């Protein structure tokens, strides 16, 4: 009888072993993680996404393949709507959302998501918005921009490339006009070279990503900065917020400027299983400390300024609590 029981136990163990091995195998083994990018190729979001994608498999159990897929449109709205409503919710699809994702939620009727319900993974870097003009532009100072019309390239009404020049015109008295229809940073810079537009707004990362030499060879003039910082990122650069003519205008500018806290944020769709979220969050945090990754980002001249998923969630909740009065004033100032 003992020998019979032992033989039965051995058979049971042998049968169970493949299933135990299968259960212990990481979910991501043999899988592909798709990283969606809300812009076209060649800009800061693209470079950040592709650089992270090279290192992420190293820190996700099962070493999945990670690919980057572009989904431009609507200043980031197309990708945000897809990630929130359509993308697989099993941890195999993540995205680098537009920094203006929260503003888009409250300002437009075509945003079919709630920013606070995205499952945030972490931020690679914050951003600072600079006023950049091409070298051949007759305008060489913000003061001149008050009397001479300046054409800025816009990548959709949900993009800061539209929002910032529009606020400059409607709240600060600058003669800025936005030319819409551009879908990527390289396309914008090519338009500046052709003389279709004279400038754009954005951070240094977008310049380093698409035209690194322009940052130092005089091709680009830096005339001002739009941010919540107390001091400019470049010595002597004029700050736009102190130019607000009254408290209500400043309130609008500060609310819009809050988008820079998002910077380059990674998120997964609502409904993604908690264990896979934790895997992805930890993996992204590990990537942002990887010496190879940091060296690549330094070579690309893209800053790394990480923030946690909890930090991004706190910013996201802010957009659920905007007063109707402020929202109405923001829409008028942005011509929504």
Overview of the molecule:
- With 336 residues, the chain is of the alpha/beta class.
- It has 2 domains: 32-126 and 261-334, Bordetella uptake gene, domain 1 (D-Maltodextrin-Binding Protein, domain 2, 3-Layer(aba) Sandwich); 129-259, D-Maltodextrin-Binding Protein, domain 2 (3-Layer(aba) Sandwich).
- 42% of the residues lie in helices and 15% in strands.
- The chain contains 12 helices and 10 strands.
- It has helices at residues 2-24, 44-59, 77-85, 101-107, 160-172, 185-194, 204-210, 247-257, 274-287, 291-300, 309-318, 324-334, and strands at residues 32-37, 65-70, 93-96, 119-123, 129-134, 150-153, 176-179, 199-202, 220-226, 265-268.
- The strands form 3 sheets. Strands 2-1-3-10-4 form a 5-stranded mixed beta sheet, sandwiched between helices. A 3-stranded antiparallel beta sheet has the order 8-5-9. Strands 6-7 form a two-stranded parallel ribbon.
- β6 (150-153), α5 and β7 form a beta-alpha-beta unit.
- α2 packs across α9 (274-287), α2 (44-59) runs antiparallel to α10 (291-300) and α8 (247-257) crosses α12 (324-334).
- The protein is globular and about 65 Å long.
- The termini are far apart.
């Amino acid at each position: 009888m003992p020998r019979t029981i032992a033989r039965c136990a051995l058979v049971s163990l042998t049968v169970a072993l493949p299933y135990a091995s299968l259960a212990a195998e990481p979910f991501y083994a043999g899988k592909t993680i798709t990283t969606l990018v809300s812009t076209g190729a060649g800009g800061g979001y693209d470079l950040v996404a592709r650089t992270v994608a090279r290192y992420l498999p190293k820190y996700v159990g099962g070493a999945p393949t990670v690919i980057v897929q572009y989904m431009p449109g609507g200043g980031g709205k197309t990708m945000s709507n897809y990630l929130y409503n359509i993308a697989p919710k099993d941890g195999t699809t993540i995205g680098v959302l537009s920094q203006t994702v929260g503003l888009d939620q409250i300002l437009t009727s075509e945003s079919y998501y709630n920013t606070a319900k995205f499952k945030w993974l972490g931020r690679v870097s914050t951003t600072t918005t600079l006023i950049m003009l091409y070298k051949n532009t007759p305008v060489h100072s913000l003061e001149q921009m008050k009397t001479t019309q300046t054409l800025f390239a816009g990548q959709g009404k949900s993009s800061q490339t539209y929002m910032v020049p529009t606020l400059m015109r409607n709240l600060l008295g600058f003669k800025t006009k936005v030319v819409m229809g551009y879908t990527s940073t390289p396309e914008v810079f090519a338009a500046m070279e052709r003389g279709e537009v004279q400038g754009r707004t954005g951070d240094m990362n977008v310049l380093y990503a698409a035209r690194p030499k322009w940052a130092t060879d005089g091709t680009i003039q830096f005339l001002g900065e739009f941010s919540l910082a107390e001091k400019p990122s470049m010595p002597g650069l004029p700050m736009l917020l102190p130019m607000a003519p009254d408290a209500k205008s400043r309130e609008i500018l500060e609310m819009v400027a809050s988008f820079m806290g998002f910077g380059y944020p990674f998120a997964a769709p609502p409904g993604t299983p908690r264990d896979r979220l934790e895997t992805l969050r930890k993996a992204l945090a590990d990537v942002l400390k990887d010496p190879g990754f940091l060296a690549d980002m330094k070579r690309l001249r893209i800053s790394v300024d990480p923030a946690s998923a909890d930090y991004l969630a706190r910013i996201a909740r802010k957009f659920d609590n905007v007063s109707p009065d402020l929202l109405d004033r923001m829409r008028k100032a942005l011509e929504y």
